[in-house]
What does this fold into?
Amino acid sequence: MSAAFILGFTYGAGACNIACLPYLGPVFFASESGGLKQAWRRVTPFSVGRLVGYACAGLLAGLLGDLLADTLQQTGLRWLLGLATLWVAIALFRGKRAAHKPCATTRQTPNRRFGLGTGLFVMGLGMAFNPCAPLSALLVAAATAGSALSGFGLGLAFGAGAVILPTLIFSIGVAHFASELRANWGRWRPHLEYASAGMMLLMGLGTWMGWISP
It folds into this structure.
């Protein structure tokens, strides 16, 4: 378990941040940051989705052996990540539209109404199933264990290590940078918001079609 955690932590400290940035980063530029608490509301569903995804991957590898690794190596679950990213982009667009209506109130948070949190959870889930060297190592270890319970434990340990640093980096660093940039763009801020949501839309479409590989 400790080896799986260290492997996940090493992955989370490097390549994971680069892979997650084009998918999660625009969310902070397309919507009000609202401080650290609001940033956590965006990062947490995504991170929990990844954690659940890695745990499920380990469990399935323990049950199916090399079959799961071979399947992911061929296709991954890019369609799931792509559809979830499209879902988040549409939620951001609809949230912006609702926010600019005269009847919009602070008690009716547009992003919450249109399922941004659920979309981020599914996006994290899809991200966890995309093939990479650390995930392949995890699946081999889980398949070798030959037990669904052992595979689940390995996946959970790997996921816990993988999400720690990205969660902190995005909730503090990226969120703060996005907040400062939005604050200094003045009348151009709506253009930044819509451009960020548009980037999410293109990322979702490209991932779903297989043109973009995270």
Remarks:
- The radius of gyration is 18 Å.
- The longest helix spans residues 148-184.
